[in-house]
């Protein structure tokens, strides 16, 4: 639905997610599916059709499939995975895949012969998707045979719409056209203020997640510090017609930089240029067609005439990672937490992995199921992963510099990529399939912290697999054969019986252990060895008790509908709502701001841990007086509750 519309009023919720892109919506889904009330604030009125990311790498695909978020987009089985209805999902042709960057298949590259053609493999040894490393062909990203596609090529707008439908179906309130202008936290929760076309909305909750992109308001107002790597190259992109000169599809390196050409729509070409001469001095200025024409002609070394641009964009290799992903009740995810040069198309995948990691942990905290330190483990697990992506994208930029002094290094990498073993290391790194979570202690076994592949399991109820068992979002205690059933592991887990699902199955070749504790995201929290699972269960899910139940969202009461406002102006609406609810009676200016980074303000939740006893009460136990959002008089309900 389109139109200039607005929202005004007050909303009480459990978690406020700022940013309605794929990352924010997956966080919202992970919360809502576990009965947590969520409001998503998104500044765009509709899903943007502007070209953005199109690449989701293997580990992100694997995690999303385990949580059931790619149904209708991919399928998988013994023969490997494949994309469903490629035309509908916006699968790009050969060439560059990332909407504003330099990802994509390694087609048309000047070096690295023998790269497999474009497609969606992932059937294990011998299968895979041709990719690149710093513009050098020869990389093949593959995945185990029972996993989905190794690389999902899907336009970001399609993923965003897909996730939004899922979120709204779970009861998430998606408020579009709401630009966040204020984020504050205090000892009891958070207050987020947003403005729409006709008014303001104030969301009061327990936590806020900033998934609002590279220019994140949540990061800025939350007081997060960052490690910054200044830009060293400048780049342009756009969909244009070539009216004079010839540009062939593919990756083209000259002594002055790179031109990446991909077939666009309507007879246009999607162009990207990389000028390694230094950063752009006018990076805040919107690029023009003439600027892109000059850059393409200069790099190509001949005159190229361009016309009829659909869109133009400017980017660089500027990189940033937040020094922490959590400050009290405020969290960062996706581009709000990290940005990097888009070569390799890893930005969206890294953000989606943030979302899956944070979502279930934050939901467990709100519901009272979180052990001490569970929320802090989000930063410990995801920030090093982003730092690693930044490191190897910077390495790729170094390889892309056209100077003759780098020719020996490029030749060496071409040889390594063609050799097999080294290429596999780089492919696993780019696709995040080599990720091993930080150790909990000094004596962990091989499996702890690793990702459990989608193996087939034979249980008393028949055949199944890991993906099917994790679809409900519960942790799994897998007991293999007689060793698992007789090891006393199930007895140790009885105190978490309402939360952890115990599955007895036959032994699996290659899994040389009696039992595994698998997290909802597919990573292994514990493997049988010198000790039982009780200590790890308490660390993750709090002290043993028999009163907790993992309640799916479908069994909880529906979120009350937002009621029409009685006032027509933002100030009157906010004043009216605030006067009716004692909890919101203090002025917003009196809500304590976040303490500066590194301070010990008492108004902020300590960053060290939120134990199960310290986490605010679940939604059902909060004050029974609920605040309904007030929507401007005459505003169609379909607009503010979600796109479409």
What tags apply to this protein structure?
5-stranded antiparallel sheet, 24% helix
Quick summary:
This protein has 15 helices and 32 strands. It has 644 residues and is of the alpha+beta class.
Global shape: globular
What would you call the quaternary organization?
Answer: single chain
Structural class: alpha+beta
Which range does the strand content fall in? 15-25%
**Helix percentage:** 10-25%
Give me the number of helical elements: 15
Topology, number of strands? 32
Biggest sheet features: 6 strands, mixed
Mean pLDDT: 79
**What is the terminal-to-terminal distance?**
6 Å
Low-confidence segments, ≥5 residues, pLDDT <50?
A: 1-6, 85-101, 103-126, 554-644
Strand order of the largest sheet: 10-3-2-14-23-22
Radius of gyration: 25 Å
Can you describe what's shown?
Helix content is 24%, strand content 23%. By secondary structure, it is of the alpha+beta class. The protein is built from 15 helices and 32 strands. Residues 1-6, 85-101, 103-126 and 554-644 have low confidence and may be disordered. Helix 1 (22-32) packs parallel to helix 3, helix 6 (347-367) packs antiparallel against helix 7 and helix 8 (407-419) packs across helix 9. The protein has a six-stranded mixed sheet.
Which secondary structure elements does this structure contain, and how are they paired or packed?
Elements (H helix, E strand, L loop, with lengths): L8 E4 L2 E4 L3 H11 L5 E5 L12 E3 H9 L7 E2 L6 E2 L45 E5 L2 E6 L9 E3 L2 H14 L3 E4 L2 E8 L2 E7 L4 E6 L1 E4 L6 H5 L4 E4 L4 E11 L5 E5 L2 E7 L5 E7 L13 H12 L4 E12 L2 E4 L3 E2 L2 E3 L5 E2 L7 H21 L8 H25 L6 H13 L1 H10 L25 E4 L2 E4 H5 L5 E5 H5 L3 H4 L8 E5 L9 E4 L5 E4 L6 H8 L21 E2 L5 H11 L49 E2 L5 H4 L4
Helix pairs in contact: 1-3, 1-6, 2-6, 6-7, 8-9
């Amino acid at each position: 639905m389109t139109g200039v519309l607005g929202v005004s009023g007050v909303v009480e919720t459990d978690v406020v997610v700022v940013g309605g892109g794929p990352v924010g919506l997956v966080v919202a889904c992970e919360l809502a599916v576990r009965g947590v009330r969520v409001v998503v604030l998104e500044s765009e009125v509709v899903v943007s059709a502007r070209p953005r990311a199109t690449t989701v790498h293997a580990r992100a695909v694997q995690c999303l499939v385990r949580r059931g978020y790619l149904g209708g987009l991919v399928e998988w089985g013994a023969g490997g995975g494949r994309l469903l209805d490629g035309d509908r999902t916006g699968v790009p042709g050969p060439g560059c895949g990332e909407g504003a960057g330099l990802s994509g298949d390694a087609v048309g590259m000047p070096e690295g012969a023998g790269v497999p053609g474009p497609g969606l493999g992932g059937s294990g040894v011998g299968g895979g998707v041709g990719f690149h490393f710093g513009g050098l062909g020869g990389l093949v990203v593959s995945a185990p045979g029972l996993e989905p596609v190794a690389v999902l090529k899907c336009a970001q707008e399609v993923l965003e719409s897909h996730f939004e439908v899922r979120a709204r179906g779970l009861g998430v309130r998606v408020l579009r056209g709401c630009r966040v202008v204020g984020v504050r936290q205090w000892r009891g929760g958070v207050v987020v203020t947003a403005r729409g076309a006709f008014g303001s909305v104030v969301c009061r909750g327990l936590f806020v997640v900033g998934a609002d992109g590279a220019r994140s308001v949540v990061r800025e107002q939350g007081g997060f510090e960052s490690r910054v790597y200044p830009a060293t190259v400048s780049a342009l992109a756009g969909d244009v017609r070539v009216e004079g000169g010839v540009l062939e599809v593919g990756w083209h390196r000259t002594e002055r930089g790179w031109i990446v050409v991909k077939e666009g729509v309507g007879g246009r070409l999607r162009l990207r240029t990389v000028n390694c001469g230094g950063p752009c001095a006018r990076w805040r200025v919107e690029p023009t067609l003439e600027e892109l024409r000059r850059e393409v002609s200069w790099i190509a070394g001949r005159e190229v005439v361009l016309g009829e641009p659909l869109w133009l964009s400017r980017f660089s290799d500027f990189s940033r990672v937040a020094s922490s992903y959590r400050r009290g009740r405020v969290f960062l995810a996706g581009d709000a937490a990290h940005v990097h040069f888009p070569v390799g198309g890893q930005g969206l995948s890294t953000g989606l992995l943030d979302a899956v990691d944070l979502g279930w942990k934050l939901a467990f905290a709100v519901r009272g199921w979180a052990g001490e330190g569970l929320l802090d483990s989000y930063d410990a697990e995801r920030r090093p992963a982003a730092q690693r992506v930044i490191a190897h994208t910077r390495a790729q930029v170094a390889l892309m510099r056209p100077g003759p002094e780098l020719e020996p290094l490029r030749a060496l990498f071409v040889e390594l990529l063609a050799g097999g073993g080294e290429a596999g290391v780089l492919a696993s790194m780019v696709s995040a399939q080599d990720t091993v979570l930080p150790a909990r202690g000094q004596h962990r076994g091989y499996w702890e912290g690793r990702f459990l592949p989608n193996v087939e399991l034979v249980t008393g109820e028949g055949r199944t697999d890991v993906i099917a068992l994790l679809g409900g979002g519960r942790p799994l205690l897998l007991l293999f054969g007689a060793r698992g059933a007789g090891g006393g592991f199930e007895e140790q887990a009885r105190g978490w019986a309402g939360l952890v699902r115990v599955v007895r199955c036959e032994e699996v070749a290659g899994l040389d252990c009696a039992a595994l504790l698998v997290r909802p995201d597919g990573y292994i929290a514990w493997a049988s060895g010198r000790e039982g699972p009780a200590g790890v269960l308490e660390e993750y899910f709090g002290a043993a008790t028999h009163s907790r139940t993992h309640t799916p969202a479908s069994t909880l009461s529906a979120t009350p509908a937002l009621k029409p406002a009685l006032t027509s102006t933002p100030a009157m609406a906010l004043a009216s709502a605030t006067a009716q609810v004692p909890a919101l009676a203090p002025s917003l200016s009196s809500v304590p701001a976040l303490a500066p980074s590194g301070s010990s303000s008492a108004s902020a939740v300590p960053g060290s841990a939120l134990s199960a006893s310290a986490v605010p009460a679940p939604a059902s136990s909060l004050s029974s007086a609920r605040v309904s959002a007030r929507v401007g008089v005459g505003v169609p309900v379909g607009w503010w509750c979600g796109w479409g």
